[in-house]
Specification:
Structural class: mainly alpha
Helix content: 55-70%
CATH superfamily of one domain: MFS general substrate transporter like domains
Membrane topology: Multi-pass membrane protein
Strand content: under 5%
Organism: Prolemur simus (Greater bamboo lemur)
Subcellular location: Endomembrane system; Lysosome membrane
Radius of gyration: 24 Å
Pfam families: CLN3
CATH class of one domain: Mainly Alpha
Largest sheet: none
Family: Belongs to the battenin family.
Length: about 375
C-alpha cells in the first residue's frame, strides 16, 4: 500500500505545476494583449479625432453638440473641398514625431530606467493627453495633447516589446493582436460615441479608464517572468536576433558584454534592410492615405457630415489593421515586398479619386 500510495502521489504531483503553468500562460497572453490595446489606444483616438481637433476655430469652446449637419457649399466657392485651415496631417506629425524620437534615442540609455517608472510615465501621459485635448480651446493646445499621446505610445511600445524577451515568444503575437484591437476599438468607440450625440470633449474624457487598465495589466496581471523563461534575457535576445542577422554578422561570444563596433552595427543594419524598406514604404503610403487623402474624399448631399465621414474612414481602416495584426497564427507571408506594393496601389487609386475631385472630373455628389 505504501508503494501504491507513493506512486499515486508521484503521478499526481506534476498536475498542480502544469495547471499553474497554463494559468500563467493565459494571464501573460491576456496581459500583453491588453498592454498592446491600451498602449496604442490614445494614439489611434487622436488620429480618429484629427478632423475635430482641427475644427476648434469653427466650434468655439469645443462644447457644442457634434455635427449638427453638413454645411452647404456655395456654388461660387473657389474650392470644392471642405477642409480645415490646417491639414489633418498636422495631427499625424504630432502623433508620429515624438514616438520616432523616443525609438531613435532609446538605445542610448533608456534601458537604465527600470520598467515600472516607464510604465507609470506612459500611463500618465496617456491620461494627460485625453484631458488636455478635451479641455483645449485652441489647436496649439490640442496638438500638445496629441504629443503626450505620442510619448505614451512610443515609450510604452519600446518598454513592452523589450519586456517580451523575458516571456515565451508567443506573447509577441498577443501584443500584435492587441495593437490591432486598439485601432479597431479606438476608432469604433470614438465613432460610436460621437455618432450617438456625445461631444468630442465628453468622448475623450470617457476614455480615461484606458490608462488605468494599462497600469493594472502590467502591475496586477503579468506574472513574474523568471519561472516562465529560465534562460533569462540573454537567451531570449540571442534566439530573437539569430534569424534576422544572418551569416554575415559576427557571432556573439557567450558572456561577452561589450557592445558592437560601428562596422558590426553596419553589418547588422544591412541585413535588416529587407525588412525595413518594405515597412517604410507601407507606412508612407498608409499615412499619406489616412491623413492626407481621406480629408479630401467628401461625399456631399448625404446624411453624414464631413467629420462623420472622416471618422468612418478611420474606423474601416482600423478594422483592416486588426484583421492583419491578428493573422499571425493563421498565415505567414514571407514576401513582404508584395504587401508593400499592394499598399502603394491603394495609394495610387485613392490619389486618382482625390485628383478627379480636384479637377471636377469625379465630383462626389
Amino acid at each position: 500500500q505504501k508503494g501504491k500510495s507513493g506512486r499515486e502521489e508521484t503521478a499526481s504531483d506534476p498536475q498542480p505545476p502544469l495547471l499553474d503553468h497554463q494559468g500563467a500562460h493565459w494571464k501573460n497572453a491576456v496581459g500583453f494583449w491588453l498592454l498592446g490595446l491600451c498602449n496604442n489606444f490614445s494614439y489611434v483616438v487622436m488620429l480618429s479625432a484629427a478632423h475635430d481637433i482641427l475644427s476648434h476655430e469653427r466650434v468655439p469652446g469645443n462644447q457644442s453638440h457634434v455635427d449638427p449637419g453638413p454645411t452647404p457649399i456655395p456654388l461660387n466657392s473657389s474650392s470644392r473641398f471642405d477642409c480645415n485651415s490646417v491639414s489633418t496631417a498636422a495631427v499625424l506629425l504630432a502623433d508620429i514625431l515624438p514616438t520616432f524620437g523616443i525609438k531613435l534615442l532609446a538605445p542610448l540609455g533608456l534601458h537604465m530606467l527600470p520598467y515600472s517608472p516607464r510604465v507609470l510615465i506612459s500611463g500618465l501621459c496617456a491620461a494627460g493627453s485625453f484631458i488636455l485635448v478635451a479641455f483645449s480651446h485652441s489647436v496649439g493646445t490640442s496638438l500638445c495633447g496629441v504629443v503626450l499621446a505620442s510619448i505614451s505610445s512610443g515609450l510604452g511600445e519600446v518598454t513592452f516589446l523589450s519586456l517580451t524577451a523575458f516571456y515565451p515568444r508567443a506573447v509577441i503575437s498577443w501584443w500584435s493582436s492587441g495593437t490591432g484591437g486598439a485601432g479597431l476599438l479606438g476608432a469604433l468607440s470614438y465613432l460610436g460615441l460621437t455618432q450617438a450625440g456625445l461631444s468630442p470633449q465628453h468622448t475623450l474624457l470617457s476614455m480615461l479608464g484606458i490608462p488605468v487598465v494599462l497600469l493594472a495589466s502590467y502591475f496586477l496581471l503579468l506574472t513574474s517572468p523568471e519561472p516562465q523563461d529560465p534562460g533569462g534575457e540573454a537567451e531570449a535576445e540571442t534566439a530573437a536576433r539569430q534569424p534576422l542577422i544572418g551569416t554575415e554578422a559576427p557571432e556573439s561570444k557567450p558572456g561577452c558584454s561589450s557592445g558592437l563596433s560601428l562596422q558590426e552595427r553596419w553589418t547588422v543594419f544591412k541585413s535588416l534592410l529587407q525588412y525595413i524598406l518594405p515597412l517604410v514604404l507601407v507606412y508612407f503610403a498608409e499615412y499619406f492615405i489616412n491623413q492626407g487623402l481621406f480629408e479630401l474624399l467628401f461625399f456631399r448631399n448625404t446624411s453624414l457630415s464631413h467629420a462623420q465621414q472622416y471618422r468612418w474612414y478611420q474606423m474601416l481602416y482600423q478594422a483592416g489593421v486588426f484583421a492583419s495584426r491578428s493573422s499571425l497564427h493563421c498565415c505567414r507571408i514571407h514576401y513582404t515586398w508584395a504587401l508593400a506594393m499592394l499598399q502603394v496601389l491603394t495609394l495610387v487609386s485613392h490619389s486618382q479619386a482625390g485628383l478627379g475631385e480636384f479637377l471636377g472630373i469625379m465630383p462626389y455628389e
